[in-house]
Amino acid sequence: MMFSARSFTDLDDLISPTTRSIDFQDDYAVVAVSRIVRLAWTSLPPDASLLTNDPETDVKQFGRTWAGSADRPPQNPDNDDITSYWRKTAIPYQYNHVFWDVSQFVKDVYNGGHMHPPCTEMFAINFEDGEKAQAEGPTAMPNARRTWDKNVLLTWAYVGEGVKVRVMVEKGAAEGDENATEKEFAVLERERATEAWWVQKGKEVRFYVEGDVVEGKKGVAAAVVWCPLCEGDENEAHSKIREILAD
Question: Rounded to 5 degrees, what are φ and ψ at 5?
Fold first, then answer.
């Protein structure tokens, strides 16, 4: 079972949302997959001789080895590696399983689009602009920006220890306008491990790295995985709501 972790501001927000937070803490299968792939990110990958270069097989084998173990796998000290097969391909691929279940909830509840797996992608958010952000205060530039031409689902694959990434979306101004007001809709941090977020197409999303460990740090602060959703016909329930509002 999943639920929306965000309150609705009005009926228009209910049927024409800009963002949504989806909490999957009660969906144990999704929680189990997200836990093992996040553990895989911080762990040393299996020896190359054990890898098949099939992302489905390789990460599942890692999960079978470590999911029920009281021991922790050897940790990877290189937090900045985002180009290896293990982190660029194998781990993001497993988020198809997470996003598939979340997308079913989104499709039924928000009419937010449907997924065609495999379709996951990943990008890193770096610390460097975080130093500038602290120096410049509330008008600081974000550490990363993204605008998608389709509705998307996103969650974090990695967040550094002590790091918090505040996620804002433009509001009330034309796309790309630097003076557009922002609203916060997500916080990426290790303590919030059972959330995914839906974002409406065409909205610029801005990521700000925060936390006590930011000053003087370089390299990767967090890694985000996402997948596009294709829009379908509006379902009957949403059509009825629109008819009621139009009267």
Answer: -95, 15
Mean per-residue pLDDT, 37-52? 95
Non-local CB neighbours of 49 within 8 Å, separated by 6+ positions? none
Q: What is residue 174's predicted lDDT score, i.e. its pLDDT? A: 47
**What burial class does residue 73 get, using C-beta atoms within 10 Å of its C-beta: 0-12 exposed, 13-18 middle, 19+ buried?**
middle
- Check whether 225 has a pLDDT greater than 60: yes
Q: What gap in Å lies between CA 18 and CA 64, rounded to an integer?
A: 38
Which among 16-20, 128-132, 221-225 has the top mean pLDDT?
221-225
pLDDT in tens, 146-179: 999 999 999 999 999 999 999 999 875 444 455 5
Largest CA distance in the chain: 66
Question: Which phi-psi region, left, alpha or beta, contains residue 31 (left: φ > 0; alpha: ψ -120 to 50)?
Answer: alpha
